[in-house]
Amino acid sequence: AAKDEGRNRFHYFTASMQRYAKHRMRLIQDLRHAIVNNEFELFYQPIVSLQQESKLKAEALIRWRHPKRGLVSPIEFITVAEETGLIIEIGNWVFQQAARQSALWRDRFGVEVQISINKSPVQFRDEGESFESWAALLKTLNLSNNNICIEITEGLLLDGNSAISSKLAQYRQSGIQVSLDDFGTGYSSLAYLKKFEIDYLKIDQSFTRNLDSNSDDFTLCEAIIVMAHKLGMKVIAEGVETDYQRKVLSDAGCDYGQGYLFSRPVPVEEFEQAFLYTTNKVIEKTTA
Ligand code: C2E
Ligand code: MG
Ligand code: MG
Ligand code: MG
């Protein structure tokens, strides 16, 4: 009986592995199609100043308008895009789209909105990727380089690859800013914070989430803010959902907040309606 069970289990695993392999192959095919057919779209989520300063920022978050499946979340396809290298093309598209959007908002609304884009480690490791082509587009658009910010994660900095650090330095020297995303969830080696020049630390939402109830998380947030400021960085808290969290963070000196309290990530037109027709709306909402 034990033998039969074992065999059944084996069959069960192969069947599910086959299903997975099939699903994955389908996804890869669809992704290739999506690139050619322009099925991606950027949603924008405001990054709101918690202190006096009023300059508006936004994070661009990719969505996939799948012809059959509807709106697909990046969680479902970024990893496969990275594994297959398709992220290179997708990432270039994201950058171009975000840069054009910032230039468009400047021209249409007279507002400079710094747009953050998530840049995959795979893009950094790609030898063919050239900083020059990015710089050239910004120049063509006559866009100030600090209107673009790149979000990276801790893993990239621990890669130990010197080509990566020189690339990062190149971006930063050009005026493009750098954010460290999901801070506190990675390897938690703090040594790289002095080695790399970073403009913003983004406190991961797992710390912000429990600010209401858990005082340890508050202590951690406070300590991160103090440390970041001493090292010359600004702090963005992710996942701000309640007014209480906003207040606690703002009192602790946190520079910016991002989260559902201010807005979910929304399509361009919605972002314009909510934040650009009356630029002051964000500020009114946060000081109410
Ligand atoms: P991330 O860069 O850490 O982005 C923040 C995520 O938190 C977004 O999920 C956002 O919708 C969500 N979020 C924002 N505010 C709140 C809140 O108050 N509460 C909660 N529960 N969640 C909130 P999203 O859009 O599903 O993106 C997931 C991840 O996918 C991103 O995490 C990022 O790592 C990746 N991603 C998104 N767009 C791109 C892209 O263009 N390129 C690459 N390489 N990765 C991307
Ligand atoms: Mg991000
Ligand atoms: Mg994040
Ligand atoms: Mg995240």
SSE topology:
Blueprint: H1 2-37, E1 40-49, E2 57-66, E3 70-72, H2 78-84, H3 86-109, E4 114-118, H4 121-125, H5 131-140, E5 148-153, H6 154-157, H7 162-173, E6 177-183, H8 192-195, E7 200-203, H9 205-208, H10 215-230, E8 234-237, H11 243-251, E9 256-257, H12 268-276, H13 281-287
Parallel strand pairs: 2-4, 4-5, 5-6, 6-7, 7-8, 8-9
Antiparallel strand pairs: 1-2, 1-9, 2-3
Bound molecules: ligand C2E and magnesium ion (MG) (3 copies).
Residues 45, 61-62, 73-75, 78, 91, 94, 117-118, 120, 151, 181-182, 205, 238-241, 258-260, 265 line the site of ligand C2E.
Subcellular location: Cell membrane
Domain EAL: 24-279
Protein name: Diguanylate cyclase/phosphodiesterase with PAS/PAC sensor(S)
Summary, kept brief:
With 288 residues, this protein is an alpha/beta fold. The chain is built from 13 helices and nine strands.
Provide an overview of this structure.
It is found in: Cell membrane. Residues 24-279 form the EAL domain. This is Diguanylate cyclase/phosphodiesterase with PAS/PAC sensor(S). There is one protein chain. Helix 2 crosses helix 3 (86-109). The chain is an alpha/beta fold and 288 residues long. The chain has an 8-stranded mixed beta barrel, surrounded by 7 helices. It has helices at 2-37, 78-84, 86-109, 121-125, 131-140, 154-157, 162-173, 192-195, 205-208, 215-230, 243-251, 268-276, 281-287; strands spanning 40-49, 57-66, 70-72, 114-118, 148-153, 177-183, 200-203, 234-237, 256-257. The chain starts with a helix and ends with a helix. The radius of gyration is 21 Å and the shape is globular. 51% of the residues lie in helices and 18% in strands. Bound molecules: ligand C2E and magnesium ion (MG) (3 copies). The site of one magnesium ion (MG) has 4 residues, from strand 6.
